Every structure is written in C-alpha cells, then in structure tokens.
Amino acid sequence: MAPKILAVASAADLDFRYGCTPAWWQIWKGLYEAGVDLIVTPYRGRAIESPWWRTAPNPLYREAEAYASARGLAARLRGDTLLRRAEDHPADSVGDRLTREAIWRYVTPRWQRHLERIIERERDVAAVIVFTVPMAHLRGVPARLRERYDIPVVFYDGDVPMSLPEFGGMDTGFNYYHGADPSEYDLVLSNSEGGLERLRELGARRAEAVFWAADPELFAPAPVEKEYDVFFYGYGDKFRREWMQALVGEPSRSADAIDFALGGGDFRGDIGNARLVGDVPFNVFSQAISRGRINLNITRRSHATVYASSTCRPFELAAAGAAIVSNPHEGIERWFEPESELRVVDTAEEALEAYRELLADPAAAEGMGRRARERVLDEHTYAHRARQILELLGIGSPVGARG
What we know:
With 403 residues, this protein is of the alpha/beta class. The chain has helices at 21-33, 61-77, 94-122, 141-149, 196-201, 241-254, 285-290, 301-304, 313-319, 348-360, 362-379, 382-393, and strands spanning 4-11, 37-44, 54-55, 125-131, 153-157, 187-190, 207-209, 228-235, 260-265, 275-278, 292-297, 324-326, 343-344. The strands form two sheets. Strands 3-2-1-4-5-6-7 form a seven-stranded parallel β-sheet, with helices on both faces. Strands 10-9-8-11-12-13 form a six-stranded parallel β-sheet, sandwiched between helices. Strand 4, helix 4 and strand 5 (153-157) form a beta-alpha-beta unit. Helix 1 crosses helix 12 and helix 9 packs across helix 11. 46% of the residues are buried.
C-alpha cells in the first residue's frame, strides 16, 4: 500500500516566485515516483493540482493574500518593491513581534484544525512534512499532532543558512526562527550540511542534510541556437552583489565583444554592460540555459560561506548540460568536480580568463557540460533525494514504485 505523506507547503503556485517552489514540485514528483501518495496543502496561494499529488485547500487563502497586499502597499509607500531587512543580524522588531502574536491567536489554531481534519479524513497518514513554512507560525502544532495521532512531524528548511536568525531570510518573507521551537519536530531536514550544528543549537533534536538536486526530465539540453555568451538568471542580488560585480559587472566592461545577459530582476548593484532579458518562465528555463554558451552560478554569500549549503542552481545548470562558471562556494566539491565538471573563479580577472577560454573552445565547454549532467544522473536527481527522505523517515519505497 502506498504510504501517505501530508505536505504543508510554503506555496505550490509558481507565480509567487518563491525560490523553493519549483524545487518542491520536483521533489514531490520524486516522492510520487517512489510510490508515495502525497497530499499537498499550501500556506500561501491556492492549491495546485498535478498528476503527482492530491491537494487540500489553503484554509486562510483570503487572509494571507490580504496580508501580502498590505506588505506590498507598505513597501510602495517607502518607494520600494519589498520591505527589506538588514543583511547581517536583522532585528526582531516590535512589528515582527506583534505580527507573530496576531498569527498565534488567529492563524495557528485554524491551521491546527485544518491539519487535524485532513489526518482524520485520510486515517493512515505516515508523516507530516512542513516545507519551508515559517516555523514560528505553527508553534505548538507539531506536538499536538504527534500526541493525538502518533505520527512524525518533519520540518524541511530548504534555505539554510539564509533562513537562520543571523541572516533573517529573504525580503519576500519572514524570519523563520524568531519565536520558533525546532525541538517540536521529530526531524529537521536542511539543504545545508554546514548548517546542521546551528539548527541543533536552535533546538532541533535531530537534523539531517538533504541536498538540492534536479529532475533530469525537466532540466535537459535543449535543441536551440546559442544566443548569449554568458548568461545568469536569478531574482535579486542580496548577499551576492560583490560576486555579481566580479563575474558580470567588471568583465562586461572589460570585454565588449562578450555578450552578457541577465534574466530575472531586482539587480541593485553593479551589472556593468550586461543586458537585461527579463523574466524567464519556468517551463522554458532549460531552453534559456541551453541558449547560453556559458552559464553562471552566483551563490549568495550566506550559502557560499557555510560548508555544503546547496542551492538549486548548480544542479539545474548541470542537468541541462551547461558549461558552468561559479563563484567560490564552500563544499562545492561535495557535488561536482571543479575544473572537470565546472569552473570556479575567485576574481574578475579569473572570470574573464575562463570566459575567453570556454568561448574559444566550444568543444571543451560542451564536454564540461556533458560531464556535469552525467554527475547529476548518477548522484543528484530528485529520485535520489526522495529515496533519502523516505529512508530518514523510516518509510521504505513500496514494491512496484513508479519509474
């Protein structure tokens, strides 16, 4: 019989541009292929049906959208698009504390009743996994579910160390751990190996690393013409402004003959002569990658400086067969072999040298991309990660698992 897992998701709607959501889709598909009967209920936005999971509605959809609209209005009144926090130890402000108190009084009890109704309706849920919902917002709920239904409750933080109090998370969301109690959860999963000790310091009783990956059916080399010499896609340059300058800004001014293109937006630092190509819909992301002769992996400082803190991007680029040039990232050798499967550069001069070498030798660039994709197929697909999660939960893949 297929094991049932109830997934409480930060969002399932890709329109919100939350960085983790496309990865959640892929890992949920991986769980489906491992034989799991998955029920997804979103914390933000509407429930999105798919061939790979069932849904339960967002019980506070209107309230969440009203709050998001209010935050957007407050940002516009300040002349910005987001309510931004400091990059280093952002304060837990009076407004933050008042917001949590309101959430605990109104949101938390309603989400507890919602989850209880789903568990009672389904009867045989094997585990609950909370996918990067602000931990403090569900305070008390994991203990209640465990006591009443005797099922494990897991928190999956896909943005360590960015989510930790010393970094405060992205400006699009909350500071997850202020007012939270990680010890409520049976297991805390993290995208970061180096962040596990910090999670234990915050109270996690058990913390394990599950790295990001890529679905090789979604991310694959596309038969398209090359359009860009050097391509980077991302939303915002918070925590990576210095590396945007080193890998894009300075080289693009030094080499007029090299075409630099940036997808995404909210680049507030030095991008030199790079041209902006705007948003890239997720369904054509592999094509955009394949249009670049070189693709950049520019990891935010929070992740790049904490050992083996994985992000989605290098796995996605590698699965698409890209020739990758990356800024330094502590522990990147845990996933890919530098020089063989990607290039790591320390300065603008090294970046420009790498660009010129790879552009002058397309066969070498293609070979590096091919080796990177082979590494993903061998070790870094979401099928690998789904099996790892089930093993950590003590749930074996059922006989006849799909795929």
